Amino acid sequence: MITGTLKVFSVGTDWFFNELQAQEIDVVKIDWVPPPEIPEDIQGILSSLKKR
Amino acid sequence: MIQRYDEVEGRYIDSVLLMQITRDLEKEKGVSKAAVMTGSRANLEVMRNIGFEPPSGVKDTSVIIAVEADSDEAAKAAIDKAFDLMDRRTQEASAASMTLDDVGTAIGKSDLPVVFISTPGEHVKEVASKALDAGAHVHIFSSNVPLETEVMLKRKGHEKGLLVMGPDAGTTILNGKGLGFANAVRRGDVGIVGSSGTGIQELSVLLHKGGLGVSAAIGVGSADLSAEIDGITTKDAVAILKDSRYLFVIAKKPDEKVRREIVDMMKDIPSSFISLGESGEATTGKTYQTGYIDDAVAHALRELGMKPFPAAQKPPRADLNGRRLLRGFFVGGSICYQAQAILARKGTKVHSNAPADKAYTLPPDWKDLSVCIDTGAEEYVVGKPHPMIDPKARNAMVVEESKRPEVAVILIDVVLGFGSAQDLLEGLEGLAKGPIIIASICGTDDDKQGYAKVRAGLEKIGALVFDSAGQAAEYAGDLMKGASG
Question: What is the pLDDT tens value at each position of chain B, 485 positions in all?
């Protein structure tokens, strides 16, 4: 049995957030954007720092 | 006609919103066409196919705005409008009051907390891990998540007593509410656990039409019953739903050992295990095993003393006028999969991009073959919304193929419910006369699109309409027995 009052946290597309809202679900939009892409040369430096 | 382009770097906007912006631009005065997409190679190809020539050297993470208008002023105004709409989205996002780090403190004692994730697949590992750490179940709609990430997340969820529904989980119903794509079905005491989204939708709708209701439908993701994932979420969900009056598990090509272990968990309660498209039936304890959704629903109705569905109607002897090919264009992957098995049983072998039988994998040139195409498969949705959200591309394929003189039968599915677009028949009015159009509706009277309205719309374009995808495929298979060649 699954119990409790459904509370949804929506991460990602607005489309599904709006569709959840339309069902009168207790839904919260999570502020999320993809982390910035790190160029490969910087990634190399970061990973060598981690190893140390 | 004037074409103008602009490129926006460093801003994340999801593909559904970009589609909506495209639609808005196309309504602007003087604009004949528009495309607003991320600059992936596949999207640039889509732009070229519709007559744009996007500038070279664009980054695949940029958003490209392409507009064709009858004047430079109109094109410029449309580009400005696109920026305006994107700015509004950014403002709305920054107005959101919560970050992932806040989820833990926002969960109340009596809550059933679920983090619904529809980010690009490469970000799922971080987002879902944080959600589990916060004490929430997760529903991962996103696909393209590596198996090792899925295993890690599911083990972590299992240890914490939390469900990891997905990745690639299209549908879940909890407390009578749908997450992802779901129909407005009656609440009740039948439990569903499934690795196929439209399979869960079709099953829940048929149960609703048979007078039953759903306590919970737990989408576990397409890979859950594989040997690698070992059915972690399915087993957890079956354990949770063991007090159901009747329990269904629906899967596509489950690993044999995983299937045995799950059936062993189910066998003491009235239940069905559906392995889509598989031939033969078996019974283990109280668990009925079948390959077809309608068959499992009929078994449940019988077991629970409910009235059975009317049998599938047989087609009259139809003259196909020498036409010999079948075209199936589906928005539901599971419906496509089941249709292939039914058609094969009826003697029509179809090739598919999502083949039930690998020997019938769709070749590059399929125009002279009978086919069932899953238009929601990866190759059709790169950088674009799923056809249940934007059905225009699927419907355009149907219209185009209806003009071919060799095509005898066109089989389509129309899936209503939350998550699906409001106008699912957009573009179908251009259908050519000639092929017999067979459509199934997966939907209820309470779905937002209005079952009766959609049915009337399909009948208006000359389609024969079925309430079950299985029955529609059976009918198509019977019709094709009269096809030449």
Answer: 899 999 988 777 777 788 888 988 988 999 999 999 888 777 888 888 888 998 888 887 788 999 999 999 999 999 999 988 888 876 665 555 689 999 999 999 899 999 999 998 999 999 999 999 999 999 999 988 999 999 999 999 999 999 999 999 999 999 999 999 999 999 999 999 999 899 999 999 999 999 999 999 999 999 999 999 999 999 999 999 999 999 999 999 999 999 999 999 999 999 999 999 998 889 999 999 999 999 999 999 999 999 988 877 777 767 788 899 999 999 999 999 999 999 999 999 999 999 999 999 999 999 999 999 999 998 888 767 899 999 998 999 999 999 999 999 999 999 999 999 999 999 998 999 999 999 999 999 999 999 999 999 999 999 999 999 999 999 999 999 877 54
Q: Give the structural domain span for B43.
A: 2-95
- Residue B261 is encoded by which pair of tokens? 């272990």
Backbone CA torsion sign across B48, B52, B57, B59: negative
In a shared domain, residues B207 and B273: yes
Of the three residues B95, B121, B147, the one that is the final residue of a domain is: B95
Q: Give the 3-state secondary structure of residue B216.
A: strand
Tell how strand B464-466 and strand B246-251 pair up: unpaired
Q: Is the CB of B123 less than 8 angstroms away from the CB of A35?
A: yes
B240 contact residues in A (CB cutoff 8 A): 1-2
Total of domains in chain B: 3
Q: Is B136 in the same domain as B207?
A: yes
ipTM of the complex: 0.84
Q: CB of A38 within 8 Å of any CB in chain B?
A: no
Domain boundaries, chain A: 7-51
Quick check: B179 and A22 CB within 8 A?
Answer: no
- Joined tokens for residue B36: 């607003």
Distance of CA B373 to the CA centre of its chain: 13
